[in-house]
Amino acid sequence: MPFMYELKLAADEPSYTFVQQLVPQGSLVGTGQAVCTLTDGAMEFHIPAPRQGLVVEWFVEHGAVIEDGDSLARIVCEGEQVAVPAASPMRLG
Fold this sequence. Notes:
mainly beta; 4-stranded antiparallel sheet; globular
């Protein structure tokens, strides 16, 4: 049975600015695949998908300020519903 989860920024993270979607709405994403790029003004970071699924909705656009706990996207997964951890940005380079 499919279930939905919201891809959220982990609660202990600082503010970031949303740069771009790397996976368009309606596309499949794999576990650990980078789905978007954020910046803190000095460095860029990728947000990895915690679980495989279908990106059905983006909640943010280029230039939006992302605070801890904010939802970035909604993803539909196959299988039994499980707890999905919040995402922590991974520094590029």
